[in-house]
Amino acid sequence: MNRVTHQPFASFVALALLIVAPFVVPASSRAASRPIREPDALVILSTTDVRGRTDPCGCHVPKGGLARRVSFADSIRATYGQVVLVDDGGFFPDGTVPKATSWFLMDAMTLMGTDAVGTSERELSLGLGYLRSQLRRTRLPMVCANLHERATGKLVLPAYVLKTVGTVKVGIFGLMSPTPDLGPSRDSLQVEEPQAAAVRTVAELRRKGATVVVLLSQLGRMESEDLVATVDGVDAVIIGHGVPLLQKGRTIKHTVACYGGEQGHYIGRTLLRLDAQRRVTSGENEAFMLGPEVPDHKEMARLVRHFTEVTNAAEAKIAPATAAPDSQPHSE
Predict the structure, then answer these.
(1) I need a surface site. Which of 15, 38, 89, 229 has the fewest CB within 10 A?
(2) 280-286: long-range contacts (C-beta < 8 A, 24 or more apart)?
(3) Nearest to 269 by CA among 42, 91, 24
(4) 5-28: per-residue pLDDT in tens?
(5) Helix ranges restricted to H, the chain
(6) Whose CA is closest to 147, among 134, 162, 161, 128?
(7) What CA–CA distance (Å, rounded) separates 308 from 293?
(8) Which residues neighbour 33 within 8 Å (Cβ) at sequence distance 6 or greater?
């Protein structure tokens, strides 16, 4: 069983080593050799609640997919020099999708240079040990400011990412809902009340020099809106956890909110305008459908196709061994 389980990973890595280099270049490296385009703007590209989707849906109009996500991000980077790429969390698959999709999505987000990833109960569904092992392997920057170990009170994940994007110092933190089931690790984890964690984390980010603060929220729509209406200092919030798509975002008090839908069918683009001190003066959000008009990024499409082929082959090998006994021919 272990041999079959690990075969997709080995095959994926072998292919990735051959084709990753042409497109996985950090934004800071690309921008270092030339003047920054649109220096008074910061763009946040976001997805949320991807739920294990790696390729377009089988809808009447196929939408989504990793290859289109990379292509769209590249098109934005061609116009704006200061771009942040985030995922709001909720990307682990459910039981109808192979478990391997969880680590594949983590690899893919690392390869495309994702700056920060939020956390939901979905990412704990296979156990905290599994998540930590994959984070050590991929070094994916997952954040959550209110998920603690029950025994020690320590944070399970970093509360935030603080990084310089062009001329802007950006702080990105995550919050998860305290109500859902935390899966196999439920007895060893606890979720802090989100508002207290937000107040503490925003203050720390501002103290460390962040001029733009972004919240990756897995609190749902009402709780996310209530939080940014009462906690000062959040410039943009990506709202997930069963939130319907709004193609045009809203401004709540001083916070630009993105409602990006599910399964990676859309990508949110939050455009923040900055003053001379690189603080936000205004902003707007729009969700763009990743439809057929968005071309596939060839290298990422090859990775997805190879992963799907190898995973399907592995599942086919496992299936006969798990067939029900009464499905075999027998005599009366």
Answers:
(1) 229
(2) 280/42, 280/211, 280/212, 280/235, 280/236, 283/235, 283/236, 283/251, 283/256, 284/249, 284/251, 284/256, 285/236, 285/248, 285/249, 285/250, 285/256, 285/257, 285/258, 286/247, 286/248, 286/249
(3) 42
(4) 444 454 455 445 444 444 554 444
(5) 2-19, 27-32, 66-77, 100-111, 128-138, 194-207, 221-230, 298-318
(6) 128
(7) 23
(8) none
DSSP symbols for 105-154: HHHHHHHTT--EE---GGGGTT-HHHHHHHHHHH---B--SSEEETTT--
CA 81 to CA 89: how far, in whole Å? Answer: 25
Give dist(CA 13, CA 328) in Å, integer.
Answer: 37
pLDDT: which is higher, 95 or 175: 175
Q: What radius of gyration, in Å, describes the C-alpha atoms of the chain? A: 20
d(CA 128, CA 92): 13
Q: Which domains does the chain have, with CATH numbers?
A: 39-302 (3.60.21.10)
Query: What gap in Å lies between CA 132 and CA 144, rounded to an integer?
Result: 13
- The predicted pLDDT at position 97 comes to 79
Distance from C-alpha of 263 to C-alpha of 55, rounded to nearest angstrom: 10
pLDDT digits (tens, 9 = 90+) for 195-248: 999 999 999 999 999 999 999 999 999 999 999 999 999 999 999 999 999 999
Q: Which residues contact 133 (CB under 8 A, 6 or more apart)?
A: none
d(CA 43, CA 288): 14
Residues 6+ positions from 156 with CB-CB distance below 8 Å: 128, 144, 147, 148, 149, 189
Residues 264 and 68: their CA atoms lie apart, in Å, by 10
Q: Are strands 255-259 and 236-239 parallel, antiparallel or unpaired?
A: parallel
DSSP letter for each residue of 32-46: HTSPPSSTTEEEEEE
Q: Model-level pTM?
A: 0.88
The phi, psi pair for 296, rounded to 5°, reads -70, 140
Backbone angles phi and psi of 268, in degrees to 5: -85, 140
Closest CA to 200 of 139, 254, 241, 155: 155
